[in-house]
């Protein structure tokens, strides 16, 4: 029959368990020559000590042996795979005396009631925290190994452990103040340098109640869950309960349970303290690695002012483009999250080009000169100011221009821009010098109310909206509220 390593371990444990005998040191004290009458007998008495306390004396040490063996055998029926022992230190010291007296029944009763069975276990301790007790050191080590495997693959972990073992077998780890050279990596490559724990891990042998002995799976769950740490949160201005709860990965219900004096709709005060007890990991698995990658260097936008453009206008003088760089990082990852990232080497392979925007600073005067420019690009007067078709025509009509752009006749402020009955789409400009001009029948409007315009600036497109017999511009001029003939002002 063939056995694996696990079977061998179980066989060895079984042999050890069968060899357990709860006897102590037996010392025989004698005198040189004994003179006694025939009625006096010299017999052996066995003094019983439990944890250093004298319990009494018995005639036969098998009384103690039988009780301890029975207790161990009963416990083994429940805890087959655990090494068991009597929890107390039981000693028998033998002595030769005349006419001894014994306390066999009372001592047997005492031992039955007070002796306990403990497990010979290995305590796993991280820092000052006891994680738990395990059947042997192999199981305790396996818990730590499985915890590390949550954050690094098995092959990498074995490689790291082998390298550390090799260092210890040679001259031990080398300590130097000289920083290590960055690893030789190609772009896109990474390498894990070490896998360590944030706290010291220690193992020691302890006697504990058998039901305290954990399996590897139970130990891993404890490490994953962590330990409760008492913390307080001081309320800052503007904070609400839900926001505070989320800061500590708590639900609102959990936060309220930790603070029974407050309710969901309670008014909380600045400076008030809240209990925010949370689970903290026993230990962090720290993975140290390096990686080399290509990154984009975002271009910036540069703004240049110019008095060649009017205020509010801008143009792109130069289109921007991103740059490139190759960076090698030293990275510290704690429990799967990047905690620290330092640049070891950096090379810019392409410089970024800034985007350059020119913004105008030239201010358009809102006051007109009083001399009006022709409001279209060419064209002729198709109708003058005066009576026509039984009504008074208040302006001139201009038709057949070179293109249909409508231009501001002078500097001013737009006071009206929109549809207006028979005028169709109409623009009215106040030149802030007592004069106003009206532009009607436009197909579209390019300005808005409140906008300052300058002489010759396009304000719309000629059309035939409203009461119109064809495509043309109806143009009116007013001075101090009185209708004027535009021809008296046009250059």
3D architecture notes:
- By secondary structure, this protein is an alpha+beta fold.
- The strands form 9 sheets. Strands 21, 24, 26, 27, 28, 30, 32 and 33 form an 8-stranded antiparallel sheet that branches. Strands 3, 5, 6, 8 and 9 form a 5-stranded mixed sheet that branches. It has a 4-stranded antiparallel sheet with strand order 7-14-17-18.
- It folds into 5 domains: 111 residues, no CATH class; 85 residues, no CATH class; 54 residues, Membrane-bound Lytic Murein Transglycosylase D, Chain A, CATH 3.10.350.10; 76 residues, Resuscitation-promoting factor rpfb fold (Single Sheet); 113 residues, Distorted Sandwich (Glucose Permease (Domain IIA)).
- The protein is 19% helix and 40% strand.
- The N terminus is likely disordered.
- The longest helix is centred in the N-terminal third of the chain and has 17 residues.
Helix-strand blueprint:
Layout: H1 5-18, E1 42-50, E2 53-58, H2 62-78, E3 84-86, E4 90-98, H3 104-114, E5 117-126, E6 129-134, H4 137-148, H5 154-169, E7 190-197, E8 201-208, E9 213-214, H6 216-225, E10 227-229, E11 232-234, H7 241-247, H8 252-258, E12 273-275, E13 278-280, E14 285-297, E15 301-310, E16 314-318, E17 323-334, E18 337-350, E19 355-362, E20 376-377, E21 380-383, E22 386-388, E23 391-393, E24 396-399, E25 403-407, E26 412-419, E27 425-430, E28 435-442, E29 444-445, E30 452-453, E31 458-461, E32 473-479, E33 482-484
Parallel strand pairs: 6-9, 15-19
Antiparallel strand pairs: 1-2, 1-4, 3-5, 5-6, 5-8, 7-14, 10-13, 11-12, 14-17, 16-19, 17-18, 20-25, 21-24, 22-23, 24-32, 25-31, 26-27, 26-30, 27-28, 28-32, 29-31, 32-33
Helix pairs in contact: 2-3, 4-6
